[in-house]
Amino acid sequence: MPSLAEHRDGRSGELSAPRLRVDTPERAGLDPEETRLLVRDVVDLTTGVRPWAAGAVVVAGRGPVIAVQKAAGWAVRYEAYDPERDAGVELPPAGRVRMTVGTPFDLASLTKLFTSVAAVQQIERGTLGIDARVGAYLPDFLGAAAHGLTVRQLLTHTSGLRPELPLYDCADGIERLDLLRAEAPVGEPGTYVYSDLNMLLLQQLLERLTGRTLDVLVHEGITRPLGMTSTGFGPCAGAAATEDQRRPWAKADRGMLRGVVHDENAWALGGVAGHAGLFGTARDLAVFCRTLLAGGSYGPARVLGPDFVDLLLAPPGLGFAVDQPWFMGELAGRGAAGHTGFTGTSLVLDRATDTFVVLLANTVHPVRRRPDSSPRAAAGTRVARAVR
Fold first, then answer.
1. Going by C-beta distance under 8 Å and a sequence separation of 6 or more, which residues neighbour residue 94?
2. For the chain, what is the mean pLDDT?
3. Quick one: pLDDT at residue 16?
4. In the chain, how many H helices and how many E strands?
5. pLDDT tens digit string along 15-59?
6. Buried/exposed 254-278: b ≥16 CB within 10 Å, e otherwise
7. pLDDT digits (tens, 9 = 90+) for 190-208
8. Hey, which bits of 329-375 come out as E strands?
9. Is the pLDDT of residue 113 over 80?
């Protein structure tokens, strides 16, 4: 018999995971008072003279039920940043754009999760070995090959590679690729150091292995079968604005950004990168979370088998961070998995309670500031306390 999380697909007779539907917190098995407070908290994040974010969207639920979906604030509020006043230059009211539940965001490092799923799909197919050496697939990447870096080390940020390289300062794509090819670990392989370079090398490996670019792999293997029609690599019309990107606070002089990737290295690489570049909506990310909570299936679509979802999400996580209270709050502690993004994005899914929360915000609009993940942790705590 199928479990409560499954039903028979009428066309094929095969097991099919239920799609998300919008319903009440009570129908989701969530405390309505805690979900009300979650909505209140998110609205409060976007108010005041110096809000946490110009705008935000939260989508949360349990099982196949979306119990919370709320947009607050502005997708576009400022035309520039004034460094002398350390304040944004606000657009006139007619020029601002309200945030909606359907507003796409620059997902920043949430892109890493999709790169990781694409890699685990190849592991499931037997075309990629998780403990295989990167040099076996990329022999011309001499730094990684000489130090015997493995696919697992890239996926768990234990390669010893430094956090990033200044690819945005390179003259052209050849110079950027040469830097990546030569890059060797600066730390002891096996020691955790969070690095964008892990996902850039993984991107190169996947593209060499499959003969397809990362954007195609993500579209064909993840977003298209799951019906995530609002998720893809940019440019993205109508996206929430990010930063008035200028030196000295940024690494490039690009002005106010909207619909083009914020990350300077992803921008230098043409907008498609293993560590950043995806745009998407909170509702699409809820589908992504639900798929993993259901063992890799959504409706009739299957992107991973349950054993490989376990491989992806089991501690320490492949691409995913596991049990991190600093952004998960009280959802952490039982195997919750998720990630954050520099632009203000985050998602958490908890298999122990079958819950998820997606919080997307443009915290870098109009300018980047010291990161503060306490609102993300508070959202996770609200959802954890809402579970009945």
1. none
2. 95
3. 76
4. 15, 19
5. 678 999 999 999 999 999 999 999 999 999 999 888 999 999 999
6. bebbbbbbbbbbbbbbebbbbbbbb
7. 999 999 999 999 999 999 9
8. 337-341, 345-350, 355-361
9. yes
Rounded to 5°, the CA angle 284-14-17 comes to 30
**H-helix or E-strand containing 68?**
strand 65-76
The rounded distance, in Å, linking the Cα atoms of 383 and 329 is: 9
- What would the pLDDT profile of 223-238 be if each residue is shown by its tens digit? 999 999 999 999 999 9
According to the model, what pLDDT value does residue 15 have? 60
User: CA of 346: how far to CAs of 1, 184, 343, in Å?
Assistant: 35, 30, 9
Of 75, 84, 78, 92, the C-alpha closest to 50 is 78
Query: What's the confidence (pLDDT) of residue 129?
Result: 97
Give domain limits for the chain.
7-114+215-386
In whole angstroms, what is the distance from residue 152 CA to residue 76 CA?
40
What CATH number should be reported for the domain whose range is 7-114+215-386?
Answer: 3.40.710.10
Contact 74, 363 (CB under 8 A): no
The sign of the torsion formed by the CA atoms of 104, 107, 112, 113 equals negative
Q: How far apart are CA 327 and CA 344, in angstroms?
A: 11
